[in-house]
Structures are given as C-alpha cells and as structure tokens.
Amino acid sequence: MSRPPLPPFTAETAAQKARLAEDAWNSRDPERVSLAYTEDSIWRNRAEFISGRGEIVDFLKRKWARELDYRLIKEVWTWNENRIAVRFAYEWRDDSGHWFRSYGNENWEFDEAGLMRRRVASINDLPIAENERKYHWPLGRRPDDHPGLSELGL
C-alpha cells in the first residue's frame, strides 16, 4: 500500500501530507486514520506509548469518546527527506461541557511508501471559555477558506 505524497518531501508535499493528516483526524474515524500508519507504527502520545495499528485504533476510540466536538488544525513546522515536524492546535469539550484548546508538536517519520512509521507528540491542554473558541466549522474537514494556525495567531 502506498500513501502519496511520498518522501523525499518538498515544502509543497509536506504541506499536502499535513493537510491529509488533519483531514483524516477531523473525520474522527479511527480505522481511516490508522491506515496512514505502518502496521508496526510506533507512537509516543503525551505519556502513552502505542505500537501498531490495532493499538492506534483503540487509542483513537478512547480519545474521541472523551474529546467531544473535536476540531483540529495542523501546520508544517519543518521537513527533511522522510521526516516532517508539525505544530497543531485542536479544540474540544468534555462531557461536562468544559472547553479546551490543546496545543502540540508532532515529529513524523515515513517509510518509502509514505506510511508513517513513527509519531512523537507533545501536547498541552488549556481550558478555554466557550466564547474563546476559534474553530466554528461543522464537524469534519476544515473548510479551505478557514484560517490556519498562523492566521489565527495560535
């Protein structure tokens, strides 16, 4: 299986890869998201260590059961050969109606088929008031005309 764009990345293909990842995560479909990763992909997500697609699916099911109304924006920080570093922010609420904006960075490493074999994520959560939210598009893919992180000052 191949997942273009493939390494080595350029500025354009790294941005395409980040947007494809953002779109998949905004679908909140764990099976769909897992297909972008190698069968034996290794993750560090906060303090959790995950290995393989099965654990990725389980992790994402737990995540989106807790993080409701999830909306994400990713932006490329830098890239080189088969690696991309992104920064991101997502907004979500818990089951009590409290809103959060989670900020983070991810380091990605891809195999020759364009599948991610390593993901290292560092994330911090900031409680926000509902009127501080910046992401108001309907659940799903961020519209093309919606500002990105830099344009939002995040």
What labels would you give this structure?
single chain; alpha+beta; globular; 4 helices; 6 strands; 154 residues; six-stranded mixed beta sheet
Outline of this structure?
It comes from Mesorhizobium captivum. With 154 residues, the protein is an alpha+beta fold.
Q: Helix and strand layout, with pairings?
A:
Elements: H1 11-27, H2 30-34, E1 37-45, E2 48-51, H3 52-66, E3 68-80, E4 83-93, E5 99-110, E6 116-128, H4 149-152
Parallel strand pairs: 1-6
Antiparallel strand pairs: 1-2, 3-4, 4-5, 5-6
Walk me through the structure:
InterPro entries: DUF1348, NTF2-like_dom_sf. This is Nuclear transport factor 2 family protein. It comes from Mesorhizobium captivum. This protein has 154 residues and is an alpha+beta fold. 27% of the residues lie in helices and 40% in strands. The chain has a 6-stranded mixed beta sheet. The radius of gyration is 15 Å and the shape is globular. The termini are far apart.
Backbone structural class: alpha+beta
Beta strand %: 35-45%
Q: How do the strands of the widest beta sheet line up side by side?
A: 2-1-6-5-4-3
Number of strands: 6
Distance between the termini: 35 Å
The proportion of residues forming helix, as a percent range, comes to: 25-40%
**Mean pLDDT over the full residue set:** 98
Q: Tell the overall outline.
A: globular
Poorly predicted ranges: none
Query: Element order, helices and strands?
Result: HHEEHEEEEH
Cα Rg: 15 Å
The biggest sheet amounts to:
6 strands, mixed
Number of helices: 4
InterPro entries: DUF1348, NTF2-like_dom_sf
Protein name: Nuclear transport factor 2 family protein
